[in-house]
Amino acid sequence: MVVLESIRRKDLWVVAILGFLVIASAGMLGIFGFQGLELFAKDLGFSVLSMFSTVVAVLTSTRVMPEELKQRTLYPLLARPISRFDLLVGKLLGSILVSWIGFLLLAAMTGIALLWFGVKFDLLTVQYLVAKMLGLVIVCSVGLTLSLCMTHAAGCTVSVRVAFASGLISRALILACASSSDGFRLLFKVLNGVLPAYGLFDLGGRAAYLHWSPVAPWVILALAAYMLIYSSSMLALAWIRFRRLAI
Amino acid sequence: MKSSIIAMAAIACLSLSGSSISSIVDKVESPISTADLDVHESNGSVSLLGQFRTSVTSWLWLRTDLYLHNGVEMRPLTDGEVRNGRTGVGSADHQELAAIDADKLVTVIPAKSEDFRGILGDLERATRAYKDMAMHTHNDPETAFPLFRLMTWIDPNFVPGWTSGASLIARKSTRRAIVQSLEFLQVGLQYNPASIPILVQLGSLNAGRLRRFDVALRYLQKATEVGQKPRLTEDDNESLVDGYRWLALIYREQHEPELLAHVLREGLKRFPDDRVLMRLSARKAEIRKSPS
């Protein structure tokens, strides 16, 4: 349903337009004859892909529940023999699916643009795609949870900020931890553990630059485990909130 | 109605204050450029396009550092870290094109010994572009050259783009490379006719690499003329002292004791602590005695 709704709302058209912009930008660089920009194109391509796919994931996941509540379409859904938890899981899975479709569409278009520049792909690129898809699951679970704890607009804004600033906040906490007292150090450690570590899922830095080896299989498994633990925790929080919600 | 009147009165007051401000604008000195990356706010052409291109150029400039480090993000040491005696990773090769001195740099992602995050830290080191950068080497700077072309194309007033790009081309040391580097700088000079760094680099390349002293003198003298401005940026001052050194060396080479003495006097007046100028000044007498 989430996927159908997304198609009806033409969300994926937005993705297609963004993808077209990526290709057009790459084409523009080609027209101006900037030879040797392959590395730059790859770097930019991965950065843009990460950014746009995160935005699509946030927009989709933060919208699904508030809209059902606002349009009162939640009642017929809950009248069916499904629990609130089932509904929540369904919405999360739908958001993830839409995010993945959007991401893969964008990835395909970025891939075409990069092929234009003569960029070659390797195992690391595949690992980048897999890791990014795992990361999008966390983005969706955080977005869904926040959308149940605050208004749609606030949920969307906070999700975007967390998604794009988590790396920066994590760096700040590491720096602060090194030069603070024991009490604050514990606080910073806890904060660092609670914040979603989206940066772990971005292999773009390795994939874009030269001579980096593919990551070990245990790393992908560990990322999957982190994704499962974090998104399950988020889902649990969302369920606690949704269960208490007076409808 | 009342609020409309108040708003109109406020606008009128602002307009009046604007006209009185415009009358004193001429008496106020132009703002000093505090960094290489101006946002073009010092003239009337403040525009979205200008801000956009400056932002893109800044981003590309930082990107060149990332290219030299093969994607490994580096950061300068904080004041606290310096006070605690922490040192940077250091560099084992040429790093003249890197944005920051490697002895003051550490990796953004901390090493395992300095990271409290445990498995999360290990994962980050495994998934991001990270390696131990102690006494690291740099990528071939030529990989970054397209970025210099791109940033100077986007923002032709970004002087470090021209000077660093020219240094990059001139690294090959062939006559062809030097000529190409000079051509690149000439284009930069067209956009920035009063840029001391560009003028000095044109002078130093002509003198040091091609031994075309007459051409070099033209650029270096222009640089010292421009350097008479009361307020210069840090980069301008660094280039200006280089300009005086090159002028002195050329006059010494050409056995022009009077001109040499004049340049050294002027240079030491501006930069009294410069050791090169002091040494040249101390050896001035020997040069005077040299046979022509």
Describe the structure.
By secondary structure, chain A is mainly α. Chain A contains 10 helices and no strands. Chain A has helices at 2-8, 11-31, 38-70, 74-79, 84-116, 123-149, 152-178, 182-194, 204-208, 217-244. Chain A is globular and about 60 Å long. Chain B is mainly alpha-helical. Chain B has helices spanning 2-25, 48-68, 79-83, 119-127, 145-154, 159-170, 175-191, 196-209, 213-226, 234-253, 257-270, 275-282, 284-289; strands at 74-76, 105-107. Chain B has a two-stranded antiparallel ribbon. Classes of the chains: A mainly alpha (247), B mainly alpha (292). Chain A binds chain B through residues 32, 34-37, 39-40, 43, 131, 171, 174-175, 177-179, 185, 189, 192-193, 197, 199-203, 205-206, 208-212, 215-216, 219, 222-223, 226, and chain B through 63, 67, 70-71, 73, 78, 80-81, 108, 110, 114-117, 119-120, 123-124, 126-129, 139, 143, 145-147, 149-150, 153.
What is the topology?
The complex is a heterodimer of chains A (247) and B (292).
Chain A lengths: L1 H7 L2 H21 L6 H33 L3 H6 L4 H33 L6 H27 L2 H27 L3 H13 L9 H5 L8 H28 L3
Helix pairs in contact in A: 2-3, 2-5, 3-5, 3-6, 3-7, 5-6, 5-10, 6-7, 6-10, 7-8
Chain B lengths: L1 H24 L22 H21 L5 E3 L2 H5 L21 E3 L11 H9 L17 H10 L4 H12 L4 H17 L4 H14 L3 H14 L7 H20 L3 H14 L4 H8 L1 H6 L3
Antiparallel strand pairs in B: 1-2
Helix pairs in contact in B: 2-5, 5-6, 6-7, 6-8, 7-8, 8-9, 8-10, 9-10, 10-11, 11-12
